[in-house]
Amino acid sequence: MSSKQLCGKIIIFTGSGKGKTTAALGVAIQAAGNGQRAAVVQFLKGGGYTGELYSARYLDPYFSIKQFGFGCPIAVEIQSGEALCTKCGQCFRENRNPANHFAPQALAYAQELMNESVDVLVLDEISHAIKHKLIELEAVLALLNGRTPGMSIVLTGRNMPPEIIEMADDASECRVVKHPIDSGIDARRGIEY
Question: For the chain, which domains are there?
Answer without folding.
Answer: 8-176 (3.40.50.300)
